[in-house]
Write a structure and sequence with these properties.
Elements: H1 2-11, E1 31-40, H2 45-52, H3 57-62, E2 68-75, E3 82-89, H4 92-101, H5 103-113, E4 117-128
Antiparallel strand pairs: 1-3, 1-4, 2-3
Amino acid sequence: MAQEREEQISFWSPMASARRIDFAHSMNDRVYLAIWEFEINTDFRAQFEETYGSDGAWARLFRQSGEYRGTKLIRDLTRPGRYLIFDYWTSREAFHRFKQGHSAEYANLDQQCERLTDHEAMVGEFEQFPAAPDL
């Protein structure tokens, strides 16, 4: 099961996308990854995808930090309305430092987005090991 999960994550690797996420300078560097799960009201699908996508409001907020590396929005094909969001940072500390330093902006945007989602949960905080070759 763990092997399947690793392969699934690798399949969705940002390195495979046309618009590459700006990873750490060295291929040997590790990257912090916060993974979120959302269940949305499908009436707000387009708004949700725009707001939470790689160029959406959350990404624009996070880009205020030089330690933010990008966001990937993943839609579940078997459960309509379910999404995973992968937020990439240089480190766990960088992510939490940003949240503390921008707590008012973060809370404001979170409140604005509440109507788009029915459920939100942090899946976990992960460390991505050196990037694999392009898929």
